[in-house]
Design goal:
Helices cover 48% and strands 18% of the residues. By secondary structure, the protein is an alpha+beta fold. Strand 9 (369-375) and strand 10 (381-388) form a beta hairpin. Helix 2 (68-79) crosses helix 15 and helix 10 runs antiparallel to helix 11 (333-355). It is elongated, with a radius of gyration of 32 Å. The chain crosses the membrane at residues 223-242, 263-282, 298-320, 487-509. It is a multi-pass membrane protein. Its EC number is 7.2.2.8. InterPro entries: ATPase_P-typ_transduc_dom_A_sf, ATPase_P-type_domA, Heavy-metal-associated_CS, HMA_Cu_ion-bd, HMA_dom, HMA_dom_sf, P_typ_ATPase.
C-alpha cells in the first residue's frame, strides 16, 4: 500500500508573527511580502481541505512483538474497537498506524488495549495538521480551580483554539493557529499565572525509543541462563544414549525404584530452565490466552510444558509403584528448546536494532536548542535568549553561529555562510548561502554567523517530515506480506489441532491393537509395558 503526502510551504512571518517588525524597512521587503501572500494562500487552501476530514490518524510505538502472529493479534484487536476504521502494524519498525473516529475513541484507549495484550505501546504522533499542538508539563497546580484558571486564561490568547489541562498527570494539551501564536506565548502565559510550564518531551523526536538495548539484554540473559543448563543436558543425553548402546538397561538403573540417574540429573537441569529461563514465554503466553489469541509463545509453552510435566508425572508414577526400571522421559526437551529459541530471540532483537540505526542517526541530527534574538531595522541584535527548539515559532528570528546546527527550516535574513547539507542532499561540500536563501533544520553552519527567519517548525520541518516518511515506509506492507500475516493467525491453532489429533490417533490405535505399533517401531526397552510403550510413541509423534 502507499501513502499520500504533501510538503506544505508554510511561509514567512506575517503581521501577527513574532519578529515581523524586525524585518520591516529592508531592501527585500517587497519580495518578502510577495512570499507571504503566496504562503497565506497556501495556508487557506490547507485549512479548507482539512475541514472535511472527520477521521484522525495516530501512530503508536509498539514493542514486544516477536513474529507475524503478534502483528495479526494486535491488528485484529484494534479493529474490534468501536471507532477504529483502519489499523496497520509493522513488526520491524515497531509501529502501528491507526485511523479512528475521535468522537468514539482516543489514542490512550488504543495504547491501553495493546498493553493489555502483553505488549508495550505509547503514542508517537497524532498527526493533526490543521492546528499546531503543544503538550506541556505544568507544575504547581493544587486543585481544579488551578486547572480552570489556566484553561480560561490560555484560551484568551489570540490564536489559541483549545486548552485541556489534566491535574492528575500535571500536563496540558493546547491547540493553536501557528500563524498567530505558539508554544512560547502559552508557556509564558502559564508562568505569568504563577505556575511552572515546559515542553513535554516528544518521544518521537527522541532517538532513544529506537534502542533495542533492553530487549537485547533481556534475551541475552535468558539465553545465557538456558545455556548453563542446556549444554549439560545435551552432554548427559548423548552420554546416556551411548551407554544404552553398550549396556543393557538394567545396568543403568536405578538410584531408587523407578528413578534412574539419567532422569534424576536431567530433571535437575530442566527445572530451572523451564520456570526461570522460560518465564518471559509464560507471561506472554498467558496474556495471549487471556485475550483468546494464540501465538508462538503459546506454542513454545505447550511444547515445553507437555514434555516437562509428562516426564514428571510418569517418573513419579514409576517411583510410587516401585518399578524395576525408569521410564523414557523428555526432560532434555525444555532446556534445548528454550536455549535455541532464546538465542533466536536475542539475535532477532540485535537485527532489529541494526535496522533502526539509520533512522536513529537521522533523528539525532535534530537540534535541541535555538538562539532567539530581537533585532532593530538594521539587523543589530538588541537581545538574545536560548530556548528549547520546541518553543520556536513561525516567524521567529534565530541566530546561528559557525559550527552550530540550524535549529529549524528558515530563510536567511542577514549574513552569508557555507552550510553543510549532506544529511539532505548527500553533497560532500558545503553549499553557499546568502540573504533570501532557504536553510534546512539539522544542517550545519560552517563559517559565518547567520540570522534566519523560522518558516517551518516542529513537525513541519524537512527533517521531521523525512523521519515521518521513513517510518511510514517501514510501516507499509506489500500485498504478499498482508497475506502472510493473515495465514500466520491460523498457524498456531493449526499446529495445536494437528498435534492433538495425532496424539489421540496413536493412543486409540495402540489400545486397539498394540501390535500395530510394535510392527512399525522396534521395542528397544526392556520390561516395557504396553501402556508405557503406547504413551511413549503417542507423545513422540
Amino acid at each position: 500500500m502507499g501513502f499520500e503526502c504533501s510538503v506544505l510551504n508554510v511561509g514567512g512571518p506575517n503581521a501577527n508573527s513574532p519578529g515581523h517588525s524586525a524585518l520591516a524597512g529592508t531592501k527585500s521587503q517587497d519580495a518578502t511580502s510577495r512570499e507571504q501572500s503566496h504562503d497565506c494562500s497556501d495556508n487557506e487552501k490547507h485549512v479548507a481541505a482539512g475541514d472535511f476530514d472527520d477521521m484522525a490518524k495516530c501512530f503508536l510505538r509498539v514493542t514486544g512483538m516477536t513474529c507475524a502472529s503478534c502483528v495479526a493479534s494486535i491488528e485484529k484487536n484494534l479493529l474490534k474497537v468501536r471507532g477504529v476504521k483502519f489499523a496497520l502494524v509493522a513488526l520491524l519498525a515497531q509501529k502501528a498506524e491507526v485511523q479512528y473516529d475521535p468522537a468514539l475513541v482516543q489514542p490512550p484507549q488504543l495504547v491501553a488495549l495493546i498493553n493489555s495484550l502483553g505488549f508495550s505501546a505509547l503514542v508517537l504522533d497524532d498527526f493533526k495538521v490543521i492546528h499546531g499542538e503543544a503538550e506541556l508539563v505544568i507544575r504547581g497546580m493544587t486543585s481544579v480551580t488551578c486547572v480552570d484558571t489556566i484553561e480560561t486564561n490560555v484560551t484568551k490568547i489570540p490564536g489559541v483554539v483549545s486548552a485541556s489541562v489534566n491535574l492528575a498527570t500535571q500536563r496540558g494539551q493546547f491547540r493553536f493557529d501557528p500563524d498567530r501564536t505558539g508554544p512560547r506565548q502559552i508557556v509564558q502565559k502559564i508562568k505569568d499565572l504563577g505556575f511552572y510550564a515546559a515542553p513535554f518531551t516528544d518521544h518521537r523526536m527522541d532517538a532513544s525509543y529506537l534502542s533495542q538495548k533492553e530487549e537485547v539484554k533481556k534475551w541475552r540473559n535468558s539465553f545465557l541462563f538456558s545455556l548453563v543448563f542446556g549444554v549439560p543436558s545435551m552432554i548427559l543425553m548423548m552420554y546416556y544414549m551411548a551407554q544404552r548402546m553398550i549396556l543393557k538397561r538394567q545396568s543403568l538403573c536405578c538410584m531408587l525404584p523407578g528413578l534412574s540417574a539419567e532422569n534424576f540429573f536431567l530433571f535437575l537441569l530442566a527445572t530451572p530452565v523451564q520456570f526461570i529461563g522460560g518465564r518471559y514465554f509464560y507471561v506472554q503466553a498467558w496474556k495471549a490466552l487471556r485475550h483468546k489469541v494464540t501465538n508462538m509463545d503459546v506454542l513454545i509453552m505447550l511444547a515445553t510444558n507437555v514434555s516437562y510435566f509428562y516426564s514428571v508425572v510418569i517418573v513419579t508414577y514409576f517411583i510410587l509403584i516401585g518399578a524395576d526400571h525408569s521410564p523414557k522421559t523428555f526432560f532434555e526437551t525444555p532446556p534445548m528448546l528454550l536455549l535455541f529459541i532464546s538465542l533466536g530471540r536475542w539475535l532477532e532483537h540485535i537485527a532489529k536494532g541494526k535496522t533502526s540505526e539509520a533512522l536513529a542517526k537521522l533523528i539525532s541530527l535534530q537540534a535541541t536548542e535555538a538562539t532567539l534574538v530581537q533585532v532593530d531595522a538594521e539587523f543589530n541584535v538588541t537581545a538574545e535568549e536560548h530556548i528549547d527548539v520546541q518553543l520556536v515559532q513561525r516567524g521567529d528570528i534565530l541566530k546561528v553561529v559557525p559550527g552550530e546546527k540550524i535549529p529549524v527550516d528558515g530563510r536567511i535574513c542577514f549574513g552569508a555562510s557555507m552550510v553543510d547539507e549532506a544529511l539532505i542532499t548527500g553533497e560532500s561540500l558545503p553549499v553557499a548561502k546568502k540573504i533570501g536563501s532557504q536553510v534546512i533544520g539539522g544542517s550545519i553552519n560552517t563559517n559565518g554567523a547567520l540570522l534566519i527567519v523560522a518558516t517551518h517548525v516542529g513537525k513541519d520541518t524537512t527533517l521531521a517530515q523525512i523521519v515521518r516518511l521513513v517510518e511510514e515506509a517501514q510501516t507499509s506492507k506489500a500485498p504478499i506480506q498482508q497475506l502472510a500475516d493473515k495465514l500466520a493467525g491460523f498457524f498456531v491453532p493449526g499446529i495445536v489441532l494437528i498435534s492433538l489429533t495425532t496424539l489421540l490417533i496413536w493412543v486409540a490405535v495402540g489400545y486397539h491393537d498394540v501390535h500395530l505399533i510394535t510392527r512399525f517401531f522396534a521395542r528397544q526397552e526392556y520390561h516395557t509395558s504396553d501402556d508405557e510403550l503406547i504413551c511413549q510413541f503417542a507423545f513422540r509423534c
